[in-house]
Design a protein that fits this description.
Helix content: 25-40%
Distance between the termini: 33 Å
Order of helices and strands: HEHEEHHHEEEEEEHEHHEHEEEHHEEEEH
Number of strands: 18
Strand order of the largest sheet: 9-8-5-4-10-1-11-12-2-13
Strand content: 15-25%
Shape: globular
Length: about 450
C-alpha cells in the first residue's frame, strides 16, 4: 500500500475541529484523562457469553468485565461488519456514515469516506495517542486507511477476514496477503494473528509515555475461519458439543483468552483504574457456508448476521471503568453502537463540534437503571432490500429476511410488525391487527429515509 496524502486529509479534518474550538468551544481541561479501549468482536451471537445466558461456553474474562461494569440487554449494531464499524467510529448510522454495506475490495472506491470525522480524530484532537489494532474493513485506498482516519498507529488487515496463520485474505481467488503496520506490508507467517494483536497492543500502551490513549482493538474472533486453540477444541469435543458448535465454542473461548491477556497487560501497566473498556460484537453470528452454516447462538432471538431480526443486530455490549461506572449492573434500555461516540466524549470531557450525530450519550442511562432510553423517539435500520422502524416495544420490518431460518416468511409478511416485549423472538406478525401502528412506523421510516438522502 503506497503512501499518499492521507496525512493531509487527516490534518485538514483536525484543523477544522480545532478552529471550532477556538471559536467558542470549551477548552480541554488540564487533567489526567482516562484511557479508552474498545474491544470489538466479530460475528458473535447475541447470547454467546456466560453473562448473557450461554450455558455451554467458558468465557470467564469477559464475564469478569461485565461483573466489574455495566452490561446492556438491548444493545444494537448493524447486520454486517463494515456498516457496524463505520457507525461505531463516526456516531452516524451507516447510511450517513457513507457505508451501508460491506466494503468490497473489488471496488476500490468502496469504504468509509475520507471526510467523515472519526472517534480516533476526536481523541487525537484532545491529545490522545490513538491506535487501531486488528480488522479494518472500512476501505482499501490510502485515504480510507486507519492512518488517514485519525489513528497514529495501525496494525492489522484491511479486508473482511484472513486466515489467522498465513494472514491471507481468501474468497474467490487469487488469495492475497493482507497484513500491514502503518500502511507497510509486514510478514509473520505461521504466527496466530490474535496473539500478534495482543503483543502489538502491549507495545503500543508501553510507548504512550503516560499520555492518554484511545485503542480500537478490533479482534477478528469468532469470525470464520474457525481456528480456535486446540486445547479448547479438545475441551468442547470431550464435553460433547455437536458440530459446528464445537468449532465456534473453541473460537469463542480463544477470544476470551485473548481478552484476558489484554486486560492483564492493562493491569500490569497499572492502568486499570484509569481505563474505560468497552466490549461489543459488531453483529450477530454467521450462518454463511464458511462459518459451517452456523455455530453461534442467539437464544430466543430470531435472525443472524446479514438480517434485521434481533439475532442479526442485537449484540452483547459491556462498559467498565472502575470506581466511575456502576459495578455488576444491567441496563435494559435500548441503546445503539452509535451512542459510544458521544458517551466516550462526555466521559473524557471532549467537546463535540458535530451536533447532529445519530448516537446519544449513554452516561445518564449508565448512571441510573431508571433513566429513559436516549432513543425514545425511535430508530431505523436499512440493509439491502429490508428496513426496520423501531419505537418503544414496537418494531416494523419491511421486506424481512431471516438468515437463521427460524421461521417461515410469506408474501403476507412484506410488512412484519412485532411486539418485542410480548414476543422477543419475533415469531408472530401483528401487522393486520394494528394498521395504525404500521402506518405510524412507515411514516417514521420515510422521515428517516429523507434525512439520510441529504
Amino acid at each position: 500500500m503506497k503512501n499518499m496524502n492521507f496525512e493531509k486529509i487527516s490534518t485538514l479534518k483536525l484543523s477544522i475541529f480545532l478552529v471550532g474550538l477556538c471559536l467558542g468551544y470549551t477548552p480541554i481541561k488540564a487533567q489526567i484523562k482516562p484511557n479508552v479501549i474498545i474491544i470489538y468482536s466479530d460475528d458473535q451471537g447475541a447470547i454467546d457469553l456466560n453473562c448473557y445466558g450461554s450455558k455451554d461456553l467458558e468465557t470467564p474474562n469477559i464475564d469478569r468485565l461485565a461483573k466489574n461494569g455495566t452490561m446492556f440487554t438491548q444493545f444494537y449494531a448493524s447486520p454486517v461488519c463494515s456498516p457496524s464499524r463505520a457507525s461505531l467510529l463516526t456516531g452516524l448510522n451507516p447510511q450517513r456514515a457513507g457505508l451501508p454495506n460491506n466494503a468490497s475490495e473489488a471496488n476500490k472506491a468502496d469504504g468509509l469516506p475520507a471526510d467523515r470525522f472519526t472517534m480516533a480524530e476526536l481523541f487525537k484532537s484532545a491529545g490522545y495517542k490513538t491506535a487501531h489494532i486488528g480488522k479494518w474493513h472500512l476501505g482499501y485506498t490510502p485515504e480510507m486507511s486507519p492512518n488517514a482516519q485519525g489513528f497514529d498507529h495501525s496494525f492489522g488487515y484491511l479486508a473482511g477476514c484472513i486466515d489467522n496463520y498465513s494472514h491471507f485474505f481468501y474468497w474467490n481467488g487469487p488469495n492475497k496477503h493482507d497484513l500491514y503496520r502503518n500502511g507497510k506490508e509486514v510478514h509473520y507467517s505461521g504466527q496466530f494473528f490474535p496473539d500478534l494483536m495482543v503483543k502489538e497492543a502491549g507495545q503500543f500502551m508501553k510507548q504512550t509515555n503516560k499520555s492518554p490513549f484511545f485503542m480500537y482493538f478490533a479482534i477478528n474472533l469468532p469470525h470464520y475461519p474457525y481456528q480456535g486453540d486446540p486445547k479448547w477444541l479438545d475441551y468442547y469435543q470431550k464435553k460433547g458439543l455437536a458440530y459446528p458448535r464445537d468449532l465456534y465454542a473453541a473460537f469463542m473461548s480463544t477470544l476470551d483468552d485473548k481478552v484476558g491477556q489484554l486486560l492483564k497487560q492493562v493491569s500490569d501497566l497499572g492502568l486499570t483504574e484509569n481505563t474505560i473498556i468497552i466490549f461489543q460484537s459488531d453483529n450477530g453470528y454467521s450462518t454463511e457456508e464458511r462459518a459451517h452454516f452456523g455455530g453461534g447462538n442467539a437464544g430466543i432471538y430470531r435472525g443472524a448476521k446479514a438480517c434485521l431480526f434481533e439475532g442479526g443486530i442485537r449484540v452483547p455490549s459491556i462498559i467498565s471503568w472502575p470506581g466511575k461506572i456502576p459495578k455488576g449492573q444491567v441496563r435494559n434500555q435500548m441503546a445503539i453502537n452509535t451512542d459510544w461516540f458521544p458517551t466516550l466524549a462526555e466521559y473524557c470531557d471532549i467537546e463535540i463540534q458535530q451536533k447532529d450525530l445519530d448516537g446519544k450519550s449513554l452516561v445518564s442511562v449508565i448512571k441510573d437503571s431508571n433513566a429513559a432510553s436516549q432513543h425514545e423517539e425511535g430508530y431505523c435500520w436499512a440493509f439491502r432490500k429490508s428496513w426496520v422502524a423501531r419505537k418503544g416495544k414496537w418494531k416494523l420490518h419491511a421486506n424481512p429476511e431471516d438468515t437463521s431460518k427460524k421461521g417461515s416468511l410469506t408474501e403476507a409478511d412484506a410488512f412484519f410488525l412485532v411486539d418485542l416485549v410480548a414476543d422477543p423472538g419475533e415469531t408472530k406478525n401483528l401487522a393486520a391487527a394494528h394498521p395504525e401502528l404500521v402506518k405510524d412506523l412507515k411514516q417514521q421510516y420515510q422521515i428517516w429515509e429523507q434525512k439520510n438522502k441529504k
